[in-house]
Design goal:
It is a single chain. The protein is mainly α. The protein has one domain. It has 6 helices and no strands. This is Reverse transcriptase zinc-binding domain-containing protein. It comes from Panicum virgatum.
Length: 111
């Protein structure tokens, strides 16, 4: 739970993603209080007024990049600033869309 939703570093990434997409529901201050990753995921994925499947893809992508940054810090002893991870997420979003993530494309096209 801490790594994906509560860590200061990760929260900065979510703020950047929220700003990029103009989607206030992705901003951590608008999240419901949860006690587990499953509960957090369900609350975020159930956001009204946004394409559900595209949002789920985006959440998976953000969590993946946060996990990759965590691994780089532990195993490679390297640290990227949050804006670099956000840039990776934006770049990877484009690649996922090119690879056929149509629901993610629909979600992102709202920007």
């Amino acid at each position: 739970m801490h790594l994906f939703a509560e860590c200061r570093f990760t929260k900065r990434i979510w703020v950047d993603i929220s700003t990029w997409l103009g989607e206030l529901s992705l901003h951590p201050i608008n999240w419901k209080q949860t006690t587990s990753v499953h509960e957090w995921w369900s609350a975020l994925a159930g956001t009204q007024g946004v394409p559900r499947r595209g949002l789920k893809s985006l959440v998976i992508l953000v969590c993946w990049e946060v996990w990759m940054e965590r691994n780089a810090r532990i195993f490679n002893r390297t640290e990227a600033p949050s804006f670099v991870v956000t840039t990776k997420i934006r770049d990877e979003t484009t690649l996922w869309i090119v690879a056929g993530a149509k629901h993610l494309a629909h979600f992102i096209s709202r920007v």
